[in-house]
């Protein structure tokens, strides 16, 4: 029998509540009110099943960098599905889309990074890197050099290792995490933890927390440091300018590998192809996902360079790791076309130039002086507003009040997707957004913040 077409919102919500367990959601709470049914998207706009539209200030989950409705991406997917919908790259085979994509990624990556392997999601990619760190040090004859240092407020995904490396504490207790072999240090979160220090001084202090941890554990036991160039889901934490250069010095001094998790920062978000290029990071590994395909189809990549790439190229034995969907041909074809669109339309340059500057200036003009907004911060096409109870002292609201959630809900009901990380309101719109759309977005955001408290 044919599947019945459920086109009424209520019927969809009821079936959803009965059969679909949503990620990062209180199931009973959602079931009681019914999920909003999103049915269509174009450019920077979404529509729901009741015909209401919203500006998507989050590019989905920080991923739809080229915006919605790109027929070219559907076309290349269709052609690839007809020509070669699947083949693996395990058994002495390759295929044209994965070769072309790998070559392209090597051409836009930071200098010296020129070897890539693939996964299906950012979490899988970070798990892969954690395994490759172990393997690298085993090949170097340093089998004890395995501990990975991460940071508070980090988000690296939800698989066992990626969740362990994440530093958002709510992610651990339900699952008896973190796994052994991962430790966390303070984040370069000046607004919340800077105290009396200026940003640059605090940036050095936060970086030296990594050095302190390396010395405490013994450099012979520390394999890698992992960090997002800007911590995204932790609340768009922009590190002070001193932070990353000092991290690089420390990791080089103690021979600790550097993993830049570029899942959000990659593909133009910070105004260069990669956040590593914006912040002066020379990573050994980069995690890529989201903007790689603009979220049109799942795909993640692990980029390697220097001695890490050389070691794996010359391992001389089978690397016993890989996913059925590593380098999937349809995903690779979509990713390549997505990167071409970004180039053809100059979206990375726009984020690092006129459009990014316009977005940042408009937000500051509208909200810097607002009584609830302690700080507006951002780079390129990513930004955050700290909602605070007392501006002069940076005093946060009692988390039990859920001020951020309230603000997010006002936005969601009034035509804007803006996310709350605690009481930090975050924005990461498509890089293709226009100036009039930025005006509309900022107007809605300011309106909703005004109504919040
Ligand atoms: N790393 C970062 C920095 C992320 O923001 C995310 C997802 O938001 C991930 C990793 C995990 O990616 P995925 O959800 O594709 O597993």
From TrEMBL:
MF-aspect GO terms: pyridoxal phosphate binding; transaminase activity
Cofactor: pyridoxal 5'-phosphate
Pfam family, one: Aminotran_3
Record's keyword terms, sorted: Aminotransferase, Pyridoxal phosphate, Transferase
Family: Belongs to the class-III pyridoxal-phosphate-dependent aminotransferase family.
PANTHER family per record: AMINOTRANSFERASE (PTHR43094), AMINOTRANSFERASE CLASS-III (PTHR43094:SF1)
Name assigned to this protein: Aspartate aminotransferase family protein
């Amino acid at each position: 029998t044919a599947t019945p077409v459920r086109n009424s919102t209520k019927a969809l919500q009821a079936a959803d509540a009965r059969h679909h367990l949503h990620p990062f959601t209180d199931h009973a709470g959602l079931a009681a009110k019914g999920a909003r049914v999103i049915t269509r998207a174009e450019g920077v706009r979404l529509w729901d099943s009741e015909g209401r539209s919203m500006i998507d200030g989050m590019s989905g989950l920080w991923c739809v960098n080229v915006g919605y409705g790109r027929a070219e991406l559907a076309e290349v997917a269709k052609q690839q599905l007809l020509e070669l919908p699947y083949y693996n790259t395990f058994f002495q085979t390759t295929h044209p889309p994965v070769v072309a994509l790998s070559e392209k990624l090597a051409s836009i990556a930071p200098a010296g990074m020129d070897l890539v392997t693939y996964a299906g999601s950012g979490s899988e990619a970070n798990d892969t890197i954690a395994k490759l760190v172990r393997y690298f040090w085993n090949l170097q004859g340093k089998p004890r050099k395995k501990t990975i240092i991460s940071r508070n407020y980090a988000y690296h995904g939800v698989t066992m290792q990626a969740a362990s490396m994440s530093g958002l504490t709510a992610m651990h207790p339900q699952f008896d995490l973190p796994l052994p072999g991962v430790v966390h240090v303070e984040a370069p979160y000046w607004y919340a933890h800077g105290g009396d220090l200026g940003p640059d001084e605090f940036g050095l202090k936060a970086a030296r927390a990594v050095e302190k941890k390396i010395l405490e554990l013994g450099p012979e036991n520390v394999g890698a440091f992992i960090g997002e160039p800007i911590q995204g889901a932790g609340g768009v934490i922009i590190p002070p300018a001193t932070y990353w250069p000092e991290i690089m010095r420390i990791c080089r001094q103690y021979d600790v590998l550097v993993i830049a998790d570029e899942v959000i920062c990659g593909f133009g978000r910070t105004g260069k192809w990669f956040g590593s290029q914006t912040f002066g990071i020379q990573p050994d590994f980069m995690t890529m996902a989201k903007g790689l395909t603009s979220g049109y189809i799942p795909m993640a990549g692990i980029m390697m360079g220097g001695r890490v790439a050389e070691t794996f190229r010359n391992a001389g034995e089978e690397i016993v790791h890989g996913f059925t969907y590593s380098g999937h041909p349809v995903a690779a074809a979509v990713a390549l076309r997505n990167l071409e669109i970004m180039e053809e339309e100059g979206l990375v340059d726009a984020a690092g130039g006129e459009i990014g500057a316009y977005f940042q200036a408009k937000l500051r003009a509208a909200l810097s002086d607002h009584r609830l907004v302690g700080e507006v911060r951002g780079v390129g096409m990513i930004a955050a507003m700290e909602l605070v109870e007392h501006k002069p002292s940076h005093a946060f609201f009692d988390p039990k009040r859920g001020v951020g959630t309230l603000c997010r809900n006002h936005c969601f009901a009034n035509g804007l997707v803006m996310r709350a990380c605690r009481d930090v309101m975050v924005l990461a719109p498509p890089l293709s957004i226009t100036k009039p759309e930025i005006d509309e977005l900022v107007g809605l955001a300011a309106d909703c913040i005004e109504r919040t408290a």
